[in-house]
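Subject: design request, 138 residues
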């Protein structure tokens, strides 16, 4: 019974997106080692940034139907996400770009250790997921 409930939650992409954010926070709290205003371990900051960005993409894919009708091997370009978001809500493009730059580039690739930058990226990711949840239709 418990396994069936868990599977039902995973089938909802908004729950899955939230799970990515929770996983990113867990990686940071358990592995990245906060030392004052900085995290200590770049490897885990990169991992958390990538995990959070994946959560954003899961939420956007569900709302924007980005993967519907496409081959699994086809990689979706960031500009495609921008165009699709613009059709729904142009104001969200600023949040999307900021989330992309912070989570994917600054954290995921560069591994910026600054605590407030990491937390700002997670906050932006949560903002996009909350927006996507409001627009999601089962």
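Subject: RE: design request

Done. Sequence follows.
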């Amino acid at each position: 019974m418990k396994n069936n409930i868990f599977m039902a939650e995973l089938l909802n992409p908004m729950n899955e997106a939230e799970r990515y954010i929770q996983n990113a926070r867990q990686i940071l709290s358990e592995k990245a080692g906060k030392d004052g205003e900085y995290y200590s371990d770049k490897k885990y900051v990169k991992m958390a940034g990538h995990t959070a960005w994946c959560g954003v993409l899961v939420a956007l894919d569900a709302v924007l139907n980005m993967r519907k009708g496409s081959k699994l091997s086809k990689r979706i370009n960031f500009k495609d996400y921008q165009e699709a978001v613009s059709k729904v809500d142009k104001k969200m493009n600023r949040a999307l770009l900021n989330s992309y730059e912070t989570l994917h580039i600054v954290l995921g690739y560069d591994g910026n250790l600054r605590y407030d930058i990491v937390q700002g990226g997670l906050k932006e990711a949560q903002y996009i997921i909350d927006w996507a949840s409001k627009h999601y239709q089962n």
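Strands lie at 34-35, 38-39.
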